[in-house]
Amino acid sequence: MKPGVRRAVALLAAAACVGGTALAQRGSRSWSSSENQPYDGRFVFVRMSYPTMIGMGFGRQGAPWAHDYPVGEANFLRILTAVSNVHANLDGTNVLGFEDPEIFRFPVIYLVEPGYWELSETGVETLRAYLQKGGFLIVDDFPYWAWPQFELQMRRVFPDLQWFDLDVTHPIFHTFFDIETLDIVPAYPALGDRPIFRALFADNDPSGRMYVIANYQNDLSEFWEFSEWGFYAIEATNEAYKVGVNQFIYGLTR
Amino acid sequence: MFESAFRLFFKYEPLVFEQGQFVLGATRSMWLVALAAIAAALYVAWTYWQLRAIESRPRAILLATRIALLLVLIVALLRPMLLLRVAVPQQNVVGVLIDDSRSMQVADEGSGTRADYVRSQIDGEGAPLLDALNRRFVTRVFRFSSSAERLRAAGDLTFQGTATRIGDAIARAREELSGLPVAGLVVLTDGADNADTTLDQPIAALRAEGLPVFAVGVGRERLSRDVEITRVETPRRVLRGASLVVDVVVTQSGYAGRTVPIVVEEGGRTIAMQDVTLPPDGEARTVKVRFKAADAGVRTFRFSLPEQDGEEVVRNNQREALIDVRDTNERIILAEGEPRPEAKFIRQATEDDDQVSVVLLLRTAAATANAPDKFLRLGVESPDELQFGFPTTREELFRYRGLIIGSFEAAAFTPEQQRMIEDFVAVRGGGLLVLGGAGSLGEGGWAGTPLSNALPIAISGGVREPIMPPIELTVRPTPLGAGHPAVQIADTEAAAAGKWEQLPTLFSVNEAPVSALKPGASLLLDGRDRNNRRHVVLAFQRYGRGKSLVLAVQDSWLWRMHASMPVEDTTHRYFWQRLVRWLVDGVPDPTTVTVAPEVVEPGEPVTITAELFDREFRGINDARVQAHVTAPSGRTETVALDWTIERDGEYRGRFTPAENGIYRIVVDGVRASGELTGTGDAHVRVGPSDAEYFDAGMRASLLRRLSEETGGRFFRSSDTALLADAISFSGRGVTVVEERDLWDMPIVLLVVVGLMAAEWLTRRRWGLA
User: How many CB atoms lie within 10 A of CB A55?
Assistant: First the structure.
């Protein structure tokens, strides 16, 4: 058996394990929205929060930035640490705002539901500095209709940068797992057509350093969150984990 | 003055007492007289002792003066004398060696130059020194600078010699005078010897032969008004674009406290300037001068100080250094055991340096029972580079010049790989940098491994528990680190000092107290925790042929990412670019070539030394090795190099350049098996040397040592009246024994008169007359 196949098997086994474990832990709420983890050098999953208008909360999970929180990252971290050597803090995750200077201690940040996202002027400055210094932003849970709002905000951050649609040859799809196709099934139809991976690069150079990857018309964390319920096919869930692992390891290493 | 006064009282010069042997020349009858005198003295003492009528104090004085008087007379009766072995006039040869080098043109000898003094002493009628010698000896006069030869006429002295090699000159004179009755060698020189070798060997030979040297020091020991660039320490080779921090040593006299600029020029362009406040007279000040080696090629960098008003020697205000600025690409492995930001930011910091390539070998997943370690490789040149992870053969590892090991536990390496890492430093001469992290140092189980031998800190002590929070450290350079080329975060030291104050704190998860530093290791950066305890942040040591460093923090990337650091700040990039370049600076090629000296005059021989190693850096001893020497005109010659036998892989040969300019020497070889060795090159600059003008003060200590250790005597130029006497009494050559009476020294009469006067005064004082 090739090592890659072995790892895929291990991934499936881990995913199944995560599902069972998470189910078992729901009562204890060990992954509830705990206090932020202090910086200690280990990898911490950082979810970005942002203010939303009153009434825009979603009944099941509150504010848009908190979709799939905290189970999505909890499951993802278990997979990430099971299959890779990332030295992650499993005691909890962080939720930080775009104006919070603490984000500069965490080189990878994660944002969802960008259709509701609006940055303050301070947030624009902070995010620009964060990305220019070497930070990496992953945008997920990204329905088709959210693009104009998201693009508008990012244009405030980088007026001169343009978006590039990535194909499967890009290194981000091969950093850890070899993703063979981007013909990925979206989590649910409301997201739009087929998922597209769009990226923003320093100096508009697609061969250079990536600032942002947007999982447009995709929702990886939906798969992560519900991997314990069996709502989605294991194949699709597995792909969502693989893409997520690659994106985070890419952000930690490039 | 002292000599005259001494002679007034003691009849002879001190020299006579130094060289003579003290004896008593009394005949038997004189001894009888002396014994009688002693008996008389005892009688006198007894009679004085019986005189109760006299007070005790005058009685004691009278007794003492009488006895002293008698003793003086007794000693005089015993005929004290000095026996001297005196050279027979005109039966002995004296070699006179005259320094004909450029430094003799320094005008610090009275109102003229040192050369003027020498001419006045040896040239024409009434030349005091040579005449005095000629009256007693047959003289043979030599001139010397870089070589020595007989001097036919004083007019032949040019004082244009480009070097002073006293040892060679003495050897030449000994050879010329061998078989003759030589009473001694007179060396007229300022002692500014600039030969590569010390005078130990010539002194030992002279001692064995019993041949004394009488050195005459010409000039002043310290120039009264002079500034000098005493030394410039530059690397022989650097990478193009290297930012150099060079130590320039400045000495001066007469201008203390004055601020002058050190100017660095290359190709006629001023590329750097650094002010220096001149130190007190005679002291040296080391100045860190920063400049960039921007252009590739063999470059001559000129360091100079402006001429000061009234300066006696201007030619020592500048020095030149030849630096081979290489346009190459040095490859470094960054082996990181876990995906973490440190490696990412190191690569980002160094990616725009086209002279250095940091190849990332990142273990993204640790081996399991079913799968080996999984690696991410970035920056590889070919698909098969490091395809199986960390190198498993020396040949593969030794291709790299630097090795950075991140948070990678010891257990991930085989024992052979661990030995290879140690040998990478000790044998291959590579640069090793170990980063802090949960899998590093003692916490990574490296204690007791071969790698731990190479490290600058001892990691055999305790380790931190993984659950302990990291130690937050305020990082600052040590005094050594502030000026060290490996720790540069700005273009100037002042700018760097300000930046250090603003840098955010870093974190360490490793136990690395300052007390863990090994003897011989150097601490460049230290960190203070909240309890003000000092920890090692960056330390290095030489190990074998290479060097090893420890950067015991896990997140230097915070110097880039931290909220307090502006986007445009270059601290992190500067730090890593300089550190990585220094890591591979001086790492040897499989074939290395050195030349000695690196600057020569036309006609002076140059020694080529080549070290040849195979791909595993084992010395090659079976090769036919040649040096292809290309002169500035393009003319080439081939010089065969022979294995020295002293060291594996070391070959040596010589050539003599004839043209001014830069010579290039390329060495290659063919092994007995027919396999070609690697090639290496070096350069030598041929041209007029200013070496004579440096440290140009008269070196009395050197000349005194040369004289006294050979049984001779050191004279200053102002006081050579006794030179001929000193040679005469040295006991060398054809000699006769002379007796010099001492009983009739004026001092004896004075003592007798003094004692009698003391007795008379005592009697007058107490009314005993």
Answer: 5
Torsion over CA: B384, B385, B389, B394 (sign): positive
d(CA B610, CA B651): 5
What distance in Å separates the CA atoms of residue A247 and residue A138, rounded to the nearest whole number?
8
Domain that holds residue A149: 3-253
Between β-strands A163-165 and A196-201, what pairing exists: parallel, antiparallel or unpaired?
antiparallel
| Structural domain count, chain A | 1
Residues sharing a CB contact under 8 Å with residue B196, sequence separation 6 or more, in sequence order = B596, B597
Cβ density class B282-309: b for 16+ within 10 Å, e for less: eeeeebbbbbbbeeeebbebbbbbeebe
Are B260 and B305 a contacting pair, CB within 8 Å?
yes
**B376 at the A interface (CB within 8 A)?**
yes
Q: Give the model confidence (pLDDT) of B298-312 as tens digits.
A: 999 999 999 999 898
Query: B712 φ, ψ to 5°?
Result: -100, -150
Q: What is the pLDDT along chain A (254 residues), one digit of tens a residue?
A: 444 444 554 554 455 444 433 433 333 333 345 689 999 999 999 999 999 765 555 444 578 999 989 999 999 999 999 999 999 999 999 999 999 999 999 999 999 999 999 999 999 999 999 999 999 999 999 999 999 999 999 999 999 999 999 999 999 999 999 999 998 888 888 999 899 999 999 999 999 999 999 999 999 999 999 998 888 889 999 999 999 999 999 999 99
Task: Give the residue from B179, B177, B189 showing the smallest Cα distance to B216.
Answer: B189
B369 touches chain A (CB under 8 A): no
CB B611 within 8 A of CB B697: no
Q: Give the CATH number, domain containing residue A78.
A: 3.40.50.12140
Name the percent of chain B lying above pLDDT 70.
Answer: 99
| Digit-coded pLDDT (tens) for B369-404 | 888 999 999 999 999 999 999 999 999 999 999 999
Which of A7, A80, A105, A247 would best serve as a mutation to test chain B binding (most B beta carbons within 10 A)? A105
Return d(Cα A175, Cα A254) in angstroms, integer. 10
Give the residue among B323, B328, B352 at the shortest CA–CA distance from B264. B323
- A120 shares contact with chain B (CB less than 8 Å): no
User: Mutate which of B362, B364, B558 to disrupt the A interface (most A C-beta within 10 Å)?
Assistant: B364
Distance CA A47, CA A93 (A): 8
**Do B72 and B132 meet the contact criterion of CB atoms below 8 Å apart?**
no
pLDDT at B730 over 90: no
Q: Are A192 and A134 in contact (CB under 8 A)?
A: no
pLDDT of residue B69 exceeding 50: yes
The two counts, helices (H) then strands (E), for chain B are: 19, 35
Are B366 and B393 within 8 A, CB to CB? no
When scoring A133, A157, A242, A246 by the number of chain B Cβ atoms within 10 A, the one with the most, hence best to mutate, is A133
Cross-chain CB nearest to B470 (options A41, A83, A104): A41
Interface of B with A in 85-124 (CB under 8 A): none
Judged by DSSP in three states, B50 sits in helix
Which residues in chain A touch residue B339, judged by CB atoms under 8 angstroms apart? 43, 84-86, 249, 252-253
Q: Shortest CA distance to B93 belongs to which of B186, B230, B195?
A: B186
Chain A residues in contact with B370 (beta carbon < 8 A):
1, 6, 10
Q: CB neighbours (10 Å) of residue B277?
A: 12
* Residue B740 in contact with partner chain A when CB distance is under 8 A: no
Residues B117 and B163: beta-carbon distance below 8 Å? no
Q: Parallel, antiparallel, or unpaired for β A46-49 and A94-97?
A: parallel
Token duo for residue B152? 């036919």
